[in-house]
Amino acid sequence: xxxxxxxxxxxxxxxxxxxxxxxxxxxxxxxxxxxxxxxxxxxxxxxxxxxxxxxxxxxxxxxxxxxx
Length: 68
Description:
By secondary structure, the protein is mostly helical. Helices cover 69% and strands 0% of the residues.
């Protein structure tokens, strides 16, 4: 068959999520006042990272099931 669309989606979300998590961990705490004290980059980076790993896991499972 062809390329499963879950591979590139999982890859992109995992990379962007990791970048946001790293940025959220290294950002200064003074900028959190604008977001009611919540580190938005860290939270959404974690969500994107989990989603990307989930999509990668689904693609891996599908590729293992399609083997002859």
